[in-house]
Fold this sequence. Notes:
The complex is a heterodimer.
Chain A lengths: L1 E5 L1 E5 L9 E5 L1 E8 L2 E9 L7 E3 H6 L8 E7 L2 E15 L3 E10 L8 E3 L10 E4 L4 E5 L2
Parallel strand pairs in A: 5-10, 6-9
Antiparallel strand pairs in A: 1-12, 2-3, 4-5, 4-8, 7-8, 8-9, 11-12
Chain B lengths: L1 E3 L5 H5 L7 E4 L8 E5 L2 H10 L6 E4 L10
Antiparallel strand pairs in B: 2-3, 2-4
Amino acid sequence: MWRQVSYSQFPIAPSPAFPTGYTAKRPIVQVDLLTGTDRFSCFGIVDSGADLCTFPLSFALQLGLDPLTARSATSSGLGSTNVPTYYWDIKIDLQGIITFNVYAGFTEGLEAWGLGLLGQSGFFDRFPISFDYRKDKFEIFIP
Amino acid sequence: MASTIQPIDLGTLLKDLPPGAWVALSRDGVGTRVLSYSADLKKAIEQAKAMGEAHPVIIRVPESSGALLL
């Protein structure tokens, strides 16, 4: 079934480039990260430009995961390159609709954002997704 | 046919909170509200738990109100 989600809207302050400011629409969903009996509730941006599903490192620490025992690699984003990222097999609960396994990364590179990226491997490879920016909606197909 | 996933108006919820603060939200869907916020993630969670929310939803107020480029 297709599940429709409204974009989250954020007011962007005026600047020399955008004198009246504007409203940014971001495709964000609430998710729970699960490891064993531990649960951490957060948000993720549905991001087709992200290779993997990745979250702030502090979320892993709240789940009791220890980076010293994790498999690691580097990752890069705007303004940061080769940031250590630690990977674990976790489950993601999408608002009680479906729970699925994900090999997810956790990195300090996302601390400033305080939310995760639901990327290609683990999310887009699992669910068809349709964006309709002009109607302020996006849809996720959940079998 | 599509059903709807509950939207949360994050822009409104976060707009008056200090940039960079960790925010703990209630899980009650419509009318989701800010339970606590702190510069320290652990404190924000503990305060929300003290208010009876076992699994608050966590987000951070953006440091900048500028564009987000992924």
